[in-house]
Amino acid sequence: MVKLIGKKISFAVFISGRGSNLKSIYKFSKKKSSNFDLKLVVSNKKNAKGVLFAKKNKIKVKLVNFKKKNEAERDILFCLRKNNIRFVCLAGFMKILSNNFIKKFKNKIINIHPSLLPKYKGLNTHRRAIENKEKFSGCTVHFVTDKLDSGKIIMQKKVKVFKSDTPKKLAKRILLEENKLYPKAILKIISKI
Ligand code: GRF
After folding, report:
1. Which residues contact ligand 1 via a Cβ below 6 A?
2. Fewest CB within 10 A of the end CB: N or C in the chain?
3. Is 126 a catalytic residue?
4. In angstroms, what is the span from residue 5 Cα to ligand 1's centroid?
5. Residue of 23, 39, 62, 113 marked active site
6. Ligand 1 atom 7: the closest Cα is on which residue?
7. In whole angstroms, what is the distance from residue 178 CA to residue 163 CA?
8. Among candidates 113, 103, 91, which has minimal Cα distance to 25?
9. Which of 143, 133, 138 is nearest to 119 (CA)?
């Protein structure tokens, strides 16, 4: 495990919903060995479960309205700078960030996707994997670029697809692996950020 010396690296998590990955990243960040500090949660949904979790745990929350995308992104960038955020984890954030935003945080935004990329970019990954009779699916943590779900892969975890699987069952098993993989992937790249 990477041991980091000195000040904790502040980071933000962007969410739109349930926030199970947010929870697992937060728990991991509280460990002595982590050396990164979850300082901010950004959400485009004010009633998201993840927002409630953040508030309960006294993590700063920034709510944004993506109907005016340019303004929302300007607002977020200002907030990231003000809080000295060094990197960003997207975790179920259902908005597409502009190239301009991504450029400003180049190689400092990562995402988790519920498939073995480059397979099944985009939505409905589990249904498509089952329909194609895949033997394995899984999850991927990758850098965010201007092309959807296409940036450099940081880590992946394979999950077996059973004949009896429904998209819901498969999603549940993959999510458990996502929750374990995301903190590991952060740890892997943090020293290079
Ligand atoms: C996860 O399946 C993630 O891979 C996808 O959105 C879902 C978010 O789940 N991008 P949660 O909100 O972290 O529970």
Report:
1. 15, 17-22, 50, 91-92, 112-114, 175, 178
2. N
3. no
4. 31
5. 113
6. 92
7. 21
8. 91
9. 138
CA–CA dist 146, 125 (Å, integer): 20
pTM: 0.95
- Tens digits of per-residue pLDDT, 67-108? 999 999 999 999 999 999 999 999 999 999 999 999 999 999
Q: Which residues contact 10 (CB under 8 A, 6 or more apart)?
A: 36, 37, 39, 40, 83, 84, 85, 86
DSSP bridge partners of 166: none
Residue type, 124: N
φ, ψ of residue 137 to 5 degrees: the values are -130, -150
Cβ atoms of 189 and 183 closer than 8 Å:
no
